Structure formats: structure tokens, C-alpha cells
């Protein structure tokens, strides 16, 4: 079994879409570990604030099959993948696939977003402070304490699941 870690975000009816996505993920992959949930402003475009979290599960499926499952869950949640920079019902990004370093042009893990965005790094640091980034080598706690990207405010929220 491989621990798969994904980033989840939504800024269109996010409470409903996040809950539905968590249900679909659990149905498809089993038991989930869910990070604290944060809101943050949209990055790269004007839009409603996003709800963001990190979710982990174990899978014995190959990486491509897991990725296909994530795309199916996004589609079931109304995701329009043609709309690259804009509001979205659901965004599921594979961040980690165990300790794998993998890039086939479509799937890249570890995902660069881990080091670039507070809404990805902070939940990782919350859940696995002492785990090490597969290529950087620092712990997620160390990475979070060193994170220096102004303009990425986070607010922790409660979302019953």
C-alpha cells in the first residue's frame, strides 16, 4: 500500500462540494486522513475565497489509476478542466505518492505546489510536521517555518464531515 496525499480546493459552493468529494474519495479509496481546513483568497485570478485542505489515503493502485480516480471524482463534482484559471467546484491535485519522485508529463510528484502555496504546505505541516519532503529533504514543519510568500493569508475554519 502507498500513502497518497492530495490537495483539495473549491470556491463554488465549497462546503457542499468538499463534503461530496470527501464522500466520493472514501467510497473509492477507503479511510481518509483529513487535515485542518483553511480559506484563502483565489490565487492568479479574481474570485471567491477557496476552501482548501489536504487528504491522505492508502492505495494499492498504480499512480495512473489513482490519478484517473481523482479526475473521475472531479468530473462527478462538476469540474470543468477546460477552465484553467478561474473559479471551480472542485480541484483535486495529487501532491505525494509515497516517497515517489515521478514525472510522466501529466503526473508530477512531489507536486511543486507544496513549496509554492501556503494553502498546500500549511495543512501538510499540520498533519505530518516531521515527515520529509521527498526531494527537498526538510520536514514539512521546517518548510512551513521557512515559508516566505507574502499575500497568501490563511484562515482555519471548521467544516463538519
How would you describe this structure to a colleague?
The chain has 161 residues and is α+β, with helices and mostly antiparallel strands. It has one domain (2-157): 7,8-Dihydro-6-hydroxymethylpterin-pyrophosphokinase HPPK (Alpha-Beta Plaits). Helices cover 32% and strands 24% of the residues. The protein contains five helices and eight strands; from the N terminus they run E-H-E-E-E-H-E-E-E-H-H-H-E. Strands 1, 2, 3, 4, 5 and 8 form a six-stranded antiparallel beta sheet that branches. Strand 6 and strand 7 (108-109) form a beta hairpin. The longest helix has 16 residues, at 14-29. The relative contact order is 0.22. The model has no long low-confidence stretch (mean pLDDT 92).
Helix and strand topology:
Blueprint: E1 2-10, H1 14-29, E2 33-34, E3 37-40, E4 50-59, H2 63-76, E5 91-97, E6 102-103, E7 108-109, H3 113-116, H4 118-127, H5 140-146, E8 155-157
Antiparallel strand pairs: 1-4, 1-5, 2-4, 3-4, 3-8, 6-7
Helix pairs in contact: 1-2, 4-5
Report a brief summary of the structure:
One of its GO terms (biological process) is tetrahydrofolate biosynthetic process. The protein has 161 residues and is of the alpha+beta class.
CATH C-level name = Alpha Beta
In N-to-C order, the SSE pattern is EHEEEHEEEHHHE
Span between termini: 25 Å
- CATH homologous superfamily grouping: 7,8-Dihydro-6-hydroxymethylpterin-pyrophosphokinase HPPK
List the uncertain runs: none
Assembly state (oligomeric)? single chain
Mean pLDDT: 92
Total individual domains: 1
If you compute it from the alpha carbons, what radius of gyration comes out, rounded to the nearest whole angstrom? Answer: 15 Å
* Named CATH topology: Alpha-Beta Plaits
Strand-residue proportion: 15-25%
CATH 2nd-level architecture: 2-Layer Sandwich
Shape: globular
For the secondary structure, the number of strands is: 8
Helix coverage percent: 25-40%
Q: Structural class, please? A: alpha+beta
